[in-house]
Structure formats: structure tokens, C-alpha cells
Specification:
Radius of gyration: 17 Å
Helix content: 40-55%
CATH topology: Rossmann fold
Structural class: alpha/beta
Strand order of the largest sheet: 3-2-1-4-5-6-9
Strand content: 15-25%
CATH architecture: 3-Layer(aba) Sandwich
Bound molecules: NADP nicotinamide-adenine-dinucleotide phosphate
Distance between the termini: 49 Å
Shape: globular
Largest sheet: 7 strands, parallel
Number of domains: 1
CATH class: Alpha Beta
Order of helices and strands: EHEHEHEHEHEEHEHEHH
């Protein structure tokens, strides 16, 4: 076992994941950088001040999740950040089914699989933290024209809230939280083919806010006041109305 503080970060090749890697490396963590684009991961590893390990894996496949877990078995992992994910804009039935199912695999199945694998190890050690990157989309009742993405992020929020309570009640020493940002300026938009109606926060600010909130013990982390207000407001009106308001906002993005 290689001792020291290790953080495993999925989706580290760009955006929020890359900023998490820089932030935790600056805080003295050694980092495991996981994603599909090896060149990007190598470049990032070269910029870090602490030891790192690159794991090239496709998390849309269960074998990719197992590969990541097996590749870090010799490390004393303290922190898992399930950050990899993507969205797609358009009417549900017009987006190819294979792409919709891939979103389900990366945004939900990989998060559940990696959480399951690492949680058992963390419980044995009686320490460890898992941060699942969801979205404010997961706190809203539904997102027409990005229906599958909103649904996947609801799954992440629901799973994480329940697991956080299970661990708290058991006093297992393991903490689990969900990060639920609104718009963040990353490559997400290009992948999802979306333009945000609101100005996004930077990925560096998002990662910094998340790390700070994790330390405070928050379970659902929303990095922006505007988004907190929107989520709160959506709970005060009937679900059907909240979905229509989200649809209106969503149309402004296309
Ligand atoms: N940007 C936003 O406005 C926003 C808001 C709320 C939540 N989020 C969430 O934040 C997380 C990070 O997104 P981002 O904004 O930083 O977008 P991004 O810059 O596009 O980064 C997405 C990351 O996910 C990785 N990824 C995607 N598919 C993968 C796969 N099949 N296997 C392994 N890795 C995969 C990508 O790496 P490779 O392509 O190299 O594999 C990339 O590193 C996502 O879960 C997203 O849903 C983003």
C-alpha cells in the first residue's frame, strides 16, 4: 500500500475535474487522474506539484469503472470525486438512444459502481470522502429539452443524500456529498450543444467552493446564491409549473 493522501478524480481531463486536481494537489494530495483523453491527462499531470497517476478509462463501460478501481488498489485513497459526466440538448426522442443510454451509463451507473467499490474500502478504514458531481438540474423537478440529463442528475442527488444519511447514522467515518452547480464555464456546453442563459461561474471557483463546503460537512452543495434561490422557488410552486419555468429557461439556451 502506497501511503499518503490520494484523491481519485474522474473526468480530470477538463473543466471542473481538472480544477479539482489542481486544487487538491496544491493542498498536498497525490492525485489519480481518470478520463479517456490521455494527452490531456499527461499535460495536467505535468503541471501538478504532487505525485499523480493517470488511468485512461471509458466510464460508460462497467469494465472501465473496474479498471479504474483495480488501478488504484495499491494506493491509500482518501477522496473519490465522481465528476465525469455529460449532457445533450434536444427533444428526448430526437437524440439517438445509444447516446441517451451512454449518458445514463456515465452519469449514473459509473457513479453508483465507483461509489459502491470505494465505499466498502473507506468503511473498512473508517475514513474517506466521496463527492459526487451532480448539478442544480438534479434539484429541479425536470428539464424539458434536456430531460435525460436532468433525470440522471436527480438520480445522483437522490443516491447521494440517502447514502450520506446511511453513513452518518452508522457513524462509519465516511462522508458523502453531492455538488450541484448551476452553469459553469467548461467544455460541457460544446459537448451538450447548449448555450447558458445565465453567466457561468469558473470551474476553479466551483472546485474551491465545493472543497470548502465539504470541509464544513455540507451534503448538498450549491455554489451560487442565484441557483439556491431558483431551487428554493421551484419547491414553492406546483411541479407542473416548475417544469414549465425550467422549459422556458432551457429554450433560452438553444
Ligand atoms: N459545466 C456546467 O455548467 C455544469 C453544471 C452542473 C454540473 N456539471 C457537471 O460537472 C461534471 C464535469 O463537467 P464539466 O462541466 O467539467 O464538463 P467538461 O469540461 O466537458 O468535462 C467532462 C469530463 O468528463 C469526462 N468524461 C465524459 N465522458 C466520459 C467517459 N465516457 N469516460 C470517462 N470520462 C468521461 C471528460 O473526459 P474525456 O472526454 O477525456 O473522457 C471530461 O474530463 C459533469 O458531471 C457535469 O454534468 C457541469
Amino acid at each position: 500500500m502506497i501511503n499518503g493522501k490520494w484523491a481519485v478524480i474522474t473526468g480530470a481531463s477538463s473543466g471542473i475535474g481538472a480544477e479539482f486536481a489542481k486544487l487538491y494537489s496544491a493542498r498536498g494530495f497525490s492525485v489519480v487522474l481518470a478520463a479517456r483523453r490521455e494527452e490531456r491527462l499527461k499535460k495536467l499531470a505535468g503541471e501538478l506539484t504532487t505525485p499523480s497517476r493517470i488511468v485512461v478509462c471509458d466510464l460508460s463501460e462497467i469494465d472501465g469503472c473496474k479498471k479504474l478501481y483495480e488501478s488504484v488498489k495499491d494506493l491509500d485513497v482518501d477522496l473519490l470525486i465522481n465528476n465525469a459526466g455529460f449532457g445533450a440538448v434536444g427533444r428526448f426522442e430526437t437524440i439517438p438512444l445509444k447516446d441517451q443510454l451512454k449518458m445514463l451509463d456515465v452519469n449514473c451507473r459509473a457513479v453508483a459502481a465507483l461509489t459502491h467499490m470505494f465505499l466498502n474500502d473507506f468503511k473498512q478504514k473508517r475514513r474517506g470522502t466521496i463527492l459526487n458531481v451532480a448539478s442544480s438540474a438534479g434539484l429541479l423537478p425536470g428539464g424539458p429539452d434536456m430531460a435525460m440529463y436532468y433525470a440522471t442528475k436527480s438520480f445522483v442527488v437522490s443516491l447521494t443524500s440517502a447514502l450520506a444519511e446511511e453513513q452518518r447514522a452508522m457513524r462509519s467515518g465516511v462522508r458523502i456529498a453531492a455538488l450541484c452547480p448551476g452553469p459553469v464555464d467548461t467544455e460541457f456546453n460544446d459537448v451538450a450543444n447548449v448555450k447558458f442563459a445565465l453567466k457561468g461561474i469558473t470551474a476553479a471557483y466551483c472546485a474551491k467552493y465545493a472543497a470548502y463546503s465539504l470541509e464544513k460537512g455540507e451534503v448538498i452543495i450549491v455554489p451560487e446564491d442565484k441557483m439556491k434561490a431558483a431551487v428554493f422557488a421551484s419547491r414553492l410552486v406546483p411541479r407542473s409549473l416548475a417544469v414549465r419555468v425550467t422549459a422556458h429557461q432551457q429554450r433560452k439556451k438553444q
